[in-house]
Every structure is written in C-alpha cells, then in structure tokens.
Amino acid sequence: MTVADEGGEGVTTSRSRNKAGAGLKIERVWTTEGVHPYDEVAWERRDVVMTNWRDGSINFEQRGVEFPASWSVNAANIVTTKYFRGAVGTPEREWSLRQLVDRVVDTYRTAGEEYGYFATPADAEVFAHELTWMLLHQVFSFNSPVWFNVGTPSPQQVSACFILSVDDSMDSILDWYKEEGRIFQGGSGAGVNLSRIRSSKELLSSGGTASGPVSFMRGADASAGTIKSGGATRRAAKMVILDVDHPDIEEFVATKAREEDKIRALRDAGFDMDLGGADIVSVQYQNANNSVRVSDEFMTAVENGGGFDLRGRLDGQTIETIDAKKLFHTISQAAWECADPGLQYDDTINDWHTCPETGRITASNPCSEYLHLDNSSCNLASLNLMKFLRADGGFEVEKFVKSVEFVITAMDISICFADFPTEKIGETTRAYRQLGIGYANLGALLMASGLPYDSEQGREVSAAITSLMTGTAYRRSAELAGIVGPYDGYARNAEPHKRVMRKHAAANDAIKATGTVATAVQREATKQWTSGNKLGDKFGWRNSQASVLAPTGTIGLMMDCDTTGVEPDLALVKFKKLVGGGSMQIVNQTVPRALRSLGYPEEQVEAIVEHIADHGHVVDAPGLKPEHYPVFDCAMGERSIAPMGHVRMMAAVQPFISGAISKTVNMPEQATVADVEKIYFEGWKLGLKALAIYRDNCKVGQPLSAAKKNDAKADTTAVAQAAPEKVVEKVVEYRPVRKRLPKKRPSETISFSVGGAEGYLTASSYPDDGLGEVFLKMSKQGSTLAGVMDAFSVAISIGLQYGVPLETYVSKFTNMRFEPAGMTDDPDVRMAASVMDYIFRRLALDFLPYDRRAELGIFTARERAAQLAAEAEAEASGADLTAMAASAPVEATEPKTGPVAQPAQEMADAAAVKPAPAVGSSTELLEAVIGKAADAPLCFTCGTKMRPAGSCYVCEGCGSTSGCS
C-alpha cells in the first residue's frame, strides 16, 4: 500500500472526510487479480450440533452451515454459535462464513470510501478482497465485538476493552455503577482506578468520616455478579485499581485474601463454596481483578528498606508513613493466598504514554493489556503468526508487513462508524483513536522453529517480530495522518508522542539478534521505525496507540491457533473434535514440525510423537536428545516453564507494545511468599507495565483444584481397564400384587449437588431382583421441600414394588427442566436440567442394563469415552459406525445388585486398547495425563473446563471467555 497524495489538505479533524482526493493505493499481496477469494477456497456443508459432552444434551443446533474445508470442526462450531446473526431457524439467520465475512468487510470498505481512505474505488475493492482472503485463510481476526455487531441493526460497537473513571462524589460513583453495568450487559469488561475517592481516614464536608473506596467496591461487585448471572454473552469482567499511596491501601490489599479465609471457613462448615456454588454469592469482591498501582518511589523504598507516605486525597498531605518493605510483603502475601492483587507499574506506564498533556494513564481493562486515558476504549485485532512461518523455517517478513498495513487500516476505519456504550467513551475514543493490533500463536511459532520459549534465541525472535508489528503499525498510522489527518489530541501531545516513538526505535536498536530469522526481522523493523518516525514528524500520527497483546481467546480458536497471545503451548497433547461429532486425543501438530526443524528423520519423528501420545511429555522419548527437551517445554505438565521464564518473555516484548501484555505468571503450589516478592520486584526492574501471578491451588472456589495423589494416573488407567461389570437381569412385567422388600436389604446412598442444591439419594434393592425403593432427602426435616420429597419417594417406591418399570420413570422424569439446575458433582452426570433429571439419570446408570439406557441416551463417562474411541476408529477406517453399533453383541447378563453399565463389546474393546479419559477439553486431557488437576474454571455456558488464555480463560467447547476478545 502506498500513499497517493501526501498533502492531505482540507483535513481538520480525525472525523472529517478526506476532501483533497488523496488516498491509499492498494497493492495485492494475498489475492490474484480477476479471481475472487471465495473462488480459491474449497467449501463444504456441515452440521453444527453442540452437545454437552457430559450428558449428551443439545445446547445448539444449526445444520447445513458452509465453511472452507480447511477449517477445523472447532473453529466452524465457534463461529456458527458465537458470530452468526439472526434467530436460529429463521430465513434471517446467517448460514455461511461468506455472509459473515461480507457483512463485516463490506461495512469496512463502505466506510473507508466514505471517509476518504482510498485513492479510487478499485483500491477499495482490492482492500476488501485482501481482507476477505486473510479472514478466510485465518491469517488474522478482529475482536469479538466486530463479529457480533458490525453490519447488523445493533449498535456498531467494535471495542472490547474499556477504561472508566470515578471522582470523589456520589454522582460520579453512581455513574460508575451505571456505565459499568451497560458495558457488562454487552459482554465486555471495564477497569477503573478508585484512588480519587477519599479514604476512610478522611472527613466529609459535613464533618463525618468518609466510607472509603473499598466500601463502594461492594456495590459494584454485587452489580457485576447480578449482571453476570443474568446471562450475558460472557461473564462480567472488571478490574479495580488503587494507588499504593492511598491511605486505604492495606484494606484494599486484604479484601480478597480475607474473603478467601471466609470461603474456607464456610466450606469447612458444609456450605457449597465451589465456583458457581449456591453459597459463593455470599462472598464479596469475587467479580473483579484487583491491582495496586506502584510508583518508582515506592519500589525504591522497598529496595532500600525505607518509609513511604500515604497521602490524603483532598489535600495531598501525609496521613500516615508506613514501612514500604512491610507493605510490599503484605501485597505479595495476599497474592500468594488468593492471586490478588496484581501490580501495575505506574511510572513505567506513564513514561511510555503518548498523550500525557491530556491526562495520566490511571487504569487498565480487566486483562491489563489496554492502558490509556480514562473514559476510553480499544479495538483489538490479532495476527496468526504461524501463517508467516515458511516451510524452511524462515519468516515471511514482507507479507507480515503488508498484512499489518491492511489490519491497522481496517481497525482505524472502524472508529469512523463505531458506536460506544457512553458518550464520554465515544468522545475520547474518536479523539485519540486507540487501536490494539496484536498476535497469537507465538508459542507455536517458537516451537515449530526449534527454539525454546525460555531462551535467548526465543526472546530475540519474539522481540523482533513484536517490534516489526508495532513499527509497521505506527508507520501506517503516520501515512493515514497524511491522508485523513492525525488524531484530534495530537497537536497538544506532539512532542511526548514523538519522544515515545524514539524510545520504541531505540529499544529496537538494542535487540541483540543472532539468529537468521531474528536478524532479518529486526532489520526490517529498523526500516519501519525509521520511515514511520520521519513520516510522523511531518504528518503526526492517526492513532495515539497502536498495539497490545490480548488473550486472543475466542478468536484464537476461530483461527485454529495452538497457542494464545504471547503464551507458550499449554501441553503437548490436545483434545480435537471430529467431523462426526466425536473427539480424540492428538499430539499437537507443532511437535512433528519442530522435530523436523531440529533435523530428526521421519522414523524418529514418528517414534517420538508416539511416546508423547502415550506419556504426555518428551522425557525419555526414543532418540530425542536431552538438549532438545527445552524446545517442548509447556505451560503445564512434566516439563513446565519456570515462572521467571514467563517474566523474561514479557520483558523481551514489552518495549515494542503500546499498551501492555495480558498474561498471568503461573507459580507452583510450593512457591513461597518470597518467590512472589521476587517475581513482582523483577517485573519492575525489567520494565514491565503490569504483572499478575497465580499460585496453583491457592483458591478454594476453583472446581477440581486440589491436586490428586501421585498414583491418580495409575488409578485412572486401572479403572479404565477394569473388567466389564455384569448386567442385572430385571423383572419388569406388570403384576397387581405388591412385592415388598425384605426387612434387611442391600442399599446404596449417594450424596449429590445440582446447581448448588445438595441432597442424598438412597436406593434399596431386592437381594436378587434390582431396584425396589428410593428415598430422597433435601432440606431440613419438617420443611415443605422435605415433606414433598418424602411423599414423592414413597410414591415412586410403591410404584416400583407394584411392578412399574424403572425405565418408565426414567423416560418421564429425565430432561424435566426447573431450578435448581446446572452443574453437578457426579462425574457421570455433569449437567442436569433439574434435580429430578439428575436423580433418574443416576438411577438409570445404576440399575438399568446398557441396551435399555442406550435407547434413552444415558451413558456413563467411560461408555461415552469408549463410543468416541470407536467413532474415531470407524472414521479412520471408513467403517459404518451405525451399522457396527447396531450389530454389536451385548454381553450376557446375570443377576446382580448395584450398578449395571456395560456398552457393546466392540466399544469396550476400543477403550481397552487405548484407554480414553473422560475429558471434554485440552485442560481435562492434560489432567488425565499428568494425574493432577488444574486450577481452571468450568465454562458457565457448557460446563467444559476452560483453558488459560492470557490472564483470562477460554472454553474450547463453545468459545466463551472470561475476559477480552
């Protein structure tokens, strides 16, 4: 892309249309003239049926959707469920990726022409074709709000990240509640700094004592929790920040750690305190990430062991002098206990601020990657770095540069037509035009290149690529300023903006590139910074901010990325969905590519991959040199990257990011408070802008957060390979004579929890003839619910004793929907539509033979795993799975009291050959491999265990995230 006319006369504001006839001349990079991008793609129709893998219930269904054949099942499922607009089953519903891409790209093209970005209509068409090609081939993706809103009748909100402000007045505090609620309602997140609110140690004008910011956090937290449970696109995400010199800083630091103590006490008293549990809502401050803004003055006092002044908000006078080292220890202790607070390094942040004349940077979005002015927002987009890695290990430098040009141009165009949740945010964003270009798949690129994530060579490549991305983005921004004008706030911030650009360029010059790829990329980055700064000196810049490193959760799955944001690979094995609706365990495709890059012959590659598939790690893999082990180090597993390895990577790329980096440094459970102090201190020394840690198992309210015993893996395998259980022969004929149970009869009691409601199910059996009595206990004796459940139990029991078949009850009561409903603590029935739905599914699993349960669609976790394995085997061999299942012999039955659950022999054999753990995501697969549970939340939409994505989490099942993008 080149500038047709560098004059740009007639442009007075960033919102005005170009009247001078200047514009971009667009050159083709990915596309072929005369061939539409859609004609270069092989399309196929698919059925998207999203089921809960735990109980088989259907969450979403749309058949006949159209996607490129190269797109994975997961990517197509997520786009269909998340991004297609229109009511399902109506003619207005989108059904093809073409419609989605056209809806977005046509809007960008039209706005670009209207606002004078292109020299000619032909240039606009080439621009649209290039964007279309890149989206079709998963080269990049806009953030989720673009796909949700652009080109629809809804407000055209394109930003994912928001920063609010609050002053020391009740009107401002109430406005904060309202504005935050509107943002949460739309599924986005917001951050705010509460340091302007006077402390609880200061007086009100009336003479009373102020409440302090922590008290007002309670109301905001309750609002976020209420809106979250109301069913927004994703759960409410928020960030609350307090400056380290605020007099209430110690109370702020202790808030979540104190609540964690409360959670433990309530849990020990028998309350349901798991994430999403019925009683967790009684605990405060759980809907926000907390961060402390630390200054260089404070960190220097920590380093030297001096005192530090806490200052009043009204007059700036010292209220109290504290021991800086003691407060730093308290912060680290709280983070060790509950992962909050994180740190934001205020002086570093504002030293890289392009617009200090307008105001300081005081806050960030919830994931800490967007840092800029109060009452502003940021539009994100991310490039898929693996699309630029050549087969010979080189990097497509020229195509990367051109791709950044296309993406940053499109992102800037979006601000011209975008809508915003509040007018204040709209005014600031239009005046300063903050953008957040970033990338995903860095970890995969390094591994595929044969470079360890935690190595000097890996950091060199990462730094050079990041520098090239941001340098090109700012160069394009300067070119756009010459066409449609600089951002409105540029004139008053011209000198500080230029100073920051020089700082970026100097940091680029300081990269010590040694490898071929790093050297070539840095050489081009130097050209981009030099050219861009010259253009900026002449025209200014169109954007006050250009880049961030976001979590890339949902859009990372959309682009079929193995790794998100700046993260390393989660693990070497992953969970892959199949076209037929099943799933299977595979070794990440990056692994064989990395082995070939390291020079291993094909037969050794196959042997090493087979070893990884069996063990989940590379230790003792046949023929793999120990010096190559670090290439395959991951975030979790046998060889996990040390915490400082993550910090060093962040430090390598931070100087080339306008904003910051969404990333949590994971620490092992045995880490000490001193270790946390070291991480936080080194983050300051290394020039990071923000840093958060998470110590394994530090939170009570995490499902499955306790580490399993060392022999858990062996136990799991032993269960999977256990001998098949016998099927009970049941008498099901009707007879009008009641067959009473003997005085002494075998029974089994199961405790259960459905949607946080706890109860007990006691099932008594005839000694030789199956279920004959059911007893249910919920709530306290004498309550209405307890009485109703007692009467229901008697009615069911008498019916069973008079010969009513259990399957009749099962067919009537399963899928009955009413509250409480949701997650259960039963590994075989993970989701239930109601208590009745759970009870009769459990009874069916325990007392009905397999063939009768199969007709009702009720299976154990092991049986589902066996079915998936059989489906995968059938798909690989081209066999007809339906015919196979229909002809499968069922093992002979004999009378037995208790559980009866045995699938067709072929499925059992398939499971025995290669035990398939009962998992629904890569995180759960990793747990099964390493025999230790991971601290990751369950998806609120589908119940699947999520995987980390930056400082947030993303669900591989449905694409839901806990934060941005």
Rounded average pLDDT: 84
Helix fraction by DSSP (H/I, runs of at least 4): 40-55%
Please give the radius of gyration in angstroms.
30 Å
Low-confidence stretches: 5-16, 229-234, 701-735, 879-917
The strand count comes to 27
Structure, described:
The protein is an alpha/beta fold. It folds into four domains: 2-153 and 380-555, no CATH class; 166-351, Alpha-Beta Barrel (Anaerobic Ribonucleotide-triphosphate Reductase Large Chain); 569-640, no CATH class; 722-913, no CATH class. It has 30 helices and 27 strands. Strands 5, 6, 7, 8, 9, 12, 15, 16, 19 and 20 form a ten-stranded mixed sheet that branches. A three-stranded antiparallel sheet has the order 21-22-23. A hairpin with a 2-residue loop joins strand 21 and strand 22 (757-766). It is globular and about 100 Å long. The model is unreliable at 5-16, 229-234, 701-735 and 879-917 (pLDDT under 50). Residues 48-138 form the Ribonucleotide reductase class II vitamin B12-dependent N-terminal domain. Its EC number is 1.17.4.1.
Give a brief rundown of this model.
One of its GO terms (biological process) is DNA biosynthetic process. By secondary structure, this protein is an alpha/beta fold.
Which terms summarize this structure?
965 residues, alpha/beta, Anaerobic Ribonucleotide-triphosphate Reductase Large Chain, 4 domains, 10-stranded mixed beta sheet, 3-stranded antiparallel beta sheet, 27 strands, globular
